[in-house]
Design a protein that fits this description.
Blueprint (H helix, E strand, L loop, with lengths): L14 H20 L13 H7 L2 H4 L1 H16 L3 H33 L7 H30 L2 H30 L10 H18 L7 H7 L5 H4 L4 H4 L20 H13 L18 H6 L16 H7 L18 H12 L15 H12 L1
Helix pairs in contact: 1-5, 1-6, 2-5, 4-5, 4-7, 5-6, 6-7, 6-8, 12-15
Length: 379
Amino acid sequence: MPSHSPETDEPKSYTFAWSATIVLILVYVLGLLIFPPLYDAPKGEASSLVLFIGRFHPIFLHLPVGILTVLCLFELICSTRRGEQKYGDASLLMLLLGSAGAVLAVFAGIMLSREGGYVGGNFSLHQTMGLLGTAGVLVGLVVRLIAMGRGSMELLNAYRALYFVSFGIMGLGAHFGGNMSHGNTFLTKYAPAAVKGPMVSMEKLFLSFVEKPKEEKAKPQAEEKTEPKPEEKAQPKPEMAEKPATPPTTPPPAPAGDEKLVFQHVILPVLTAKCNKCHCEEKSKGKLRMDTYEMAMNGGENGKNFVAGNLKESLSIERILLPDSDDDHMPPEGKDQLKPEEIELLKWWVEQGASGTQKVSDAKFPATLQATVDGILKG
Ligand code: HEC
């Protein structure tokens, strides 16, 4: 039996809703073909327009979050025939708007990921669940429209099941997105013990599906226990030398290198690239900024960020060397990680005094790091 509007008793056709739905699905499918979701670093630079739109992801995502949450409540009311008669149309409108918001957020998210550095477990889960949840809600929209056209309560119930599952997937995906910007412990940090355990293990379980088993990074930490002799320690382990950032043939030192400073021109670029998206003027996570020598040395909440000649006391080095899966590991999981050579370079710099004034021409970089240093100096 087709549903009837109370005033006219005419069957409703939902032409507008159908057209909007078809447009949305077309946009979703075509959009994914044009901007496919990536799980590896993007190749090549995205246009600045794409990157500009990408930055709206954190804004757009509030649309579906808000609308679809209210819709949950409405769908509960609509599960009775009377509720559906009264609020069915309102629910349909919300579903339509929420789906449109989700599609918008998905594409802004994909564009944001083109900035690079979005890899890892949290990111994979966030992207996959966002895509699946949105697809589920779009299919739900079609099912709801068919059900409303036919006035079928069974089909409406089927739709609602699909909707709640999709909403759940989306919500979980959103959580892993939150982890990416606030760190894995953000939500669980102050959780009561009874809740915290299950939450953390659920999270680990999900992450274990998408994360490749990592070789234990605990080794370098253990080595730190013995006070290192600078010359010896600066030699990177053979496995680290396997993947040089630049071809192993060392180019002649740049002639302009004479007046360049080790911190300013070799160390800072690494910090800028891998750390200072979160530790700079606009964002100083952990109250730590590293955009100048003084700030990098002074450290954040816990101070002692780089202690000359002492790797163990240097908080940044300590956190870099923690296993990737450790919540305190830097950069946080899912963010662009330091290359082994970059880690060696930072360690070398701290060990030989964490100087802010040493000139590149005076520095004795370990031979194995020369190629990396030259690469950084060349920009
Ligand atoms: C995606 C953002 C992000 C990036 C990139 C990042 N960090 Fe952090 N960092 C944080 C957040 C958030 C905190 C505060 C929470 C915590 O202590 O874990 C933090 C805290 C720290 C602290 C503790 C400061 C203190 O005094 O308590 C250190 C040290 C640190 N980061 C070093 C680094 C280094 C070194 C890099 C680059 C190799 C880096 N971070 C990259 C987000 C980031």
